[in-house]
Amino acid sequence: MQMQLLISKEAIKRRVRELASQIASDHSGRELVLVGILKGAVFFFSDLARELGVPARIDFVRAASYGSLSTSSGTVTLIKDIELSVENRSVVLVEDIVDTGLTLACIVEELKKKNPLSLKVCVLVDKLERRKVEIPVDYCGFRIESGFVVGYGLDYDEQYRNLSEIYALQGDFPT
Ligand code: IMP
Ligand code: MG
After folding, report:
1. Of 6, 8, 45, 114, which sits most exposed with the smallest number of CB within 10 A?
2. Long-range CB pairs of 52-60, under 8 A, 24+ apart, other chains included
3. What is the CATH number of the domain that holds 134?
4. How many domains does the chain fold into?
5. 155 catalytic, yes or no?
6. Cα(64) to centroid(ligand 2), Å
7. Would you say residue 37 lies in a domain?
8. What pTM, to 2 d.p., does this model score?
9. List 47, 96, 99, 126, catalytic entry
10. How much distance in Å is there from the Cα of 68 to the middle of ligand 2?
């Protein structure tokens, strides 16, 4: 298994700054709650939150999906819910990557039940090839067609999350 550098630290930093300023200006005057999806979004989330430059509350959800090493099964359950109230507040849901869309679709559904004023989706990587359900991605860091990426929170079998850059896994690896 080999890894090839796909997105540098500098490119990530630039893009996070752009997304943060877009999110801040789209939500001016609103009470903002940033909701991160554990664990993959942690580094993206914390960089994005600090670049916002406007007040925001933060909270987290964790979803479990019983899939294989590199794909989710579609059976998604929330094993940790948010703790803050989002009623009359604007939520931006922050995820590492959207692939089939099943994980985000489930979490969006759950959060909508809590009557937020608005709900937007922000993903670091939008992977297009395997999409099964339409999911509106309001803020997207990077688009890739296919492949499997790791680093900056993204894992393969819980490895590589703490790399500062994003790499494509290459060669033969169990999926
Ligand atoms: P979805 O439910 O198929 O959209 O998959 C979303 C989840 O699958 C993400 O939160 C990741 O945990 C995982 N995933 C999908 N593609 C990748 C990838 O290329 N790298 C790392 N994790 C991935
Ligand atoms: Mg994962």
Report:
1. 8
2. 52/20, 52/23, 52/24, 53/20, 53/21, 53/24, 54/24, 54/27, 54/28, 56/32, 57/31, 57/32, 57/33, 57/84, 57/89, 58/33, 58/34, 59/33, 59/34, 59/35, 59/83, 59/84, 60/35, 60/36
3. 3.40.50.2020
4. 1
5. no
6. 9
7. yes
8. 0.95
9. 99
10. 10
Edge-to-edge strand ranges of the sheet holding 166-170: 2-7, 166-170, 149-150
Tell me whether residue 99 is in a domain: yes
pLDDT tens per residue across span 106-131: 999 999 999 999 999 999 999 999 99
Domain that residue 78 falls in: 10-145
pLDDT digits (tens, 9 = 90+) for 62-99: 998 876 666 666 678 899 999 999 999 999 999 999 99
pLDDT (tens digit, 9 = 90+) per residue, 36-46? 999 999 999 99
